[in-house]
Amino acid sequence: MTDSILKVEHVSLAFGGVKALTDVSFEVPRGAVFSIIGPNGAGKTSMLNCISGRYRPQAGAIHFDGHDVTRLRPNDRADLGMGRTFQNLALFGHMSVLDNIMVGRHHLMKNNWLTGPLYWFSPAQKEELAHRREVEEIIDFLEISHVRKAVAGNLSYGLRKRVELARAMALKPKMILLDEPMAGMNLEEKEDMARYILDLNEEFGITVVMIEHDMGVVMDISHEVMVLDFGKKLISGDPDVVMADEHVKRAYLGLEDEQLQEAG
User: Fold this and answer.
1) How many domains in the chain?
2) What global pTM score does this model have?
3) Would you say residue 260 has pLDDT above 60?
């Protein structure tokens, strides 16, 4: 992890008179699990939205895999290898698990498998079958074969989170942005999701940028952690060093000076 796949340089974002991000800079090493933490309203999701292209910052620049993506649309960033999941599930509830994941492959297809005329007499069929094989590998990896034909909207919350991760993996991303992947899960589901994230990072070589509130998960699987508070970067680095920082304890954990002295 010697080079950086993502560079965020002096990014600022405001909505009207409200500053969501102020002069935030950081780098994500290629192949890392990089977590962004902070209290509610710290600007974490705004930062992810700037990286993915949903928001365009008023100042600063974002470089991904050697490309200046500051002004690129989300689809163009996906074409470069950037995947994304959302805090609130963004699945097509009426579609099957398999079809939801196949949607993630759509930008990789030369032929339109959804609407292409003369489908059975064109290269589209052969192409879809090739993509479907790769999707089936992702389904096996995330252990959702038993629900592959089920309607996504009928699944449990934990399984729907896994399907959304599968769809993001179907993009064949170099980097994946995860917005609170453990939110709303029970302990067993969290342990499973943490294992999947580690495996996709180690086995597929996908860089992970993750927002997560569960500090146990953050400490267990992150290579680096960055803390935001009121839209400003407090600190970034090794998880143990970051969590031992007094400013982080005060801002994120809500500890007062007396408690910090006792903890020290």
Assistant:
1) 2
2) 0.85
3) no
